[in-house]
Write a structure and sequence with these properties.
single chain; about 450 residues; alpha/beta; Rossmann fold; 2 domains; nine-stranded mixed β-sheet; three-stranded antiparallel β-sheet; 17 helices; 14 strands; about 45% helix
Length: about 450
């Protein structure tokens, strides 16, 4: 009934939302003298805040039409390489003759659309041939398309990697860290010739036993039956995915916002003040962020519940007990991360990350027991939270260059980065390389001592 009540509430608020939009338009009209007064701007600001708080935000577009390469604008064309019921493999095709590293970004399937990584893609485009997993809203997938769980997610990831070939570099942002690491391990066990050259795991819960957060504690303190009975609902009959059991996006969004409620309330109060003061730039920044943040998708209940159990309750991957069900044979296959020897590993964590806290992602080095030390790297970014790992100024200026160096170190058959692209950071290069070396040595020291670690970090 949660879904029906949510839709009913949205429908009941429609007249008020239309009236608020009409009021905003009226009091922002330059031909209305009241629009130039403090009272008029206040009325318009209040109306816009109300309209936005009661609106449903649809899936945004990436909107990445051009990128800069060697100080020249290069057109971008979006094309689907593979189309599957629950995910499309999207390619940002650059209209330029360059051989840059091929990068597959595995976007999180955790309530938001892949467009949440627009800033991630935008920063990578000048120096990489970028692909991304564009996950579908389960509400829009007919029940006839069958189930979708964590095993199917891993099957998709392996299919995408094989489609792009053995020279691909995989970047997993947040939630996909576990299935991507597990997928690469399966390919290693199979001795697959198309194993990726490298994988970068960013802020993901590889071992959720480390550094408890509100997310991990919620999952640990409640049985799986609680999640089934409390946050899983059936898609109403009037949607394409009618009767599919899902974890609705609006519930996940409520959870995200409640974790930092004071921050979101403060942001909307600031937005109101900016509108009253006529500060269009800051108001537009708010709109841009929340247009993306408030756009949510439903997750298939099978995927959601299996993820909760596997990653946050039983910790199967770091314990070496995770299995994957082969869809072709329905046989269970052991996930052996110790078999990874070919694919280089970079882990990235943020100091202020309150979703995948410090140590959860780094745990990947411990379980990749036979990966040579010279293929293991780590970067710890100061002064960023979860979102800042893959979006924003520090992502562009500090984290992305680190990833670029890492990828090119293991991909020798590509064109060099244009000198003009590096001109702005050229003076900082020596310091960056010193920090990089320090990071490598830290990971190597970690690898040397991993055998002394207890099996359970707790």
């Amino acid at each position: 009934m949660l879904y029906q009540l949510y839709d009913l509430q949205h429908a009941l608020l429609t007249p008020a939302r239309i009236m608020a939009e009409l009021t905003r338009t009226t009091y922002q009209n330059p031909f209305n003298p009241a629009s130039f007064t403090q009272v008029g701007r206040t009325v318009a600001a209040g109306a816009e805040v109300f309209e936005r708080m009661t609106r449903r935000f649809g899936k945004p577009a990436f909107g990445l039409d051009v990128t800069l390469i060697n100080e020249k604008e290069v057109e971008i064309e979006e094309e689907f390489i593979l189309e599957k019921p629950f995910c499309n493999l999207l390619h940002f095709k650059r209209k330029v003759k360059r051989k840059d590293p091929k990068v597959l970004i595995v976007a999180p399937m955790s309530g938001h659309f892949a467009t949440l990584l627009r800033g991630t893609v935008e920063a990578l485009l000048p120096h990489h041939d970028v692909y991304i997993t564009d996950w579908m809203d389960a509400r829009q997938v007919p029940l006839s398309e069958g189930r979708f769980n964590l095993d199917d997610y891993m099957t998709y990831v392996m299919e995408f990697i094989r489609k792009l070939g053995p020279d691909v570099h995989v970047i997993a942002v947040c939630q996909p860290a576990v299935p991507v690491l597990a997928s690469v391990a399966l390919m290693a066990t199979m001795n697959d010739p198309k194993q990726p050259l490298s994988m970068t795991l960013m802020g993901g819960p590889v071992d959720a036993r480390v550094s408890k957060t509100a997310v991990t504690e919620l999952a640990e303190n409640r049985p799986l039956s609680w999640f089934k009975n409390t946050v899983v609902d059936q898609v109403p009959f009037y949607y394409p995915g009618a009767f599919r059991k899902v974890y609705p996006g609006f519930i996940q969004l409520s959870g995200f916002m409640s974790m930092n409620l004071d921050r979101h309330v403060g942001s909307h109060l600031s937005f109101f003040k900016h509108l009253v003061q006529g500060d269009g730039d800051n108001a537009q920044t708010h709109r841009k962020f929340y247009n993306e943040y408030m756009a949510v998708m439903d997750l298939d209940a099978g995927f959601y519940l299996q993820t909760v159990q596997t990653v946050f309750q039983r910790f199967l991957l770091p314990k070496g007990e995770m299995k994957w069900r082969d869809p072709a044979t329905e046989q269970l296959v052991d996930v052996r991360t110790q078999d990874i020897k070919h694919t280089a590993l970079l882990t990235i964590e943020g100091e202020l990350d309150d979703i995948s806290a410090h140590g959860q992602t780094t745990a990947a080095h411990k379980i990749c027991a036979n990966l040579p030390a010279h293929k293991q790297y780590h970067h710890f970014q100061l002064d960023v939270g979860h979102y800042g790992i893959f979006n924003g100024k520090r992502w562009r200026n500090e984290i992305m260059p680190r990833i670029r160096h890492f990828i090119r170190h293991f991909d020798k058959g590509v064109d060099p980065v244009p000198a003009d692209d590096l001109a702005l950071t050229k003076d900082k290069a020596p310091e960056q390389y010193r920090e990089e070396k320090h990071g490598i040595e830290a990971v190597r020291e970690f690898v040397k001592t991993r055998k002394s670690h207890a099996k359970d970090p707790e």
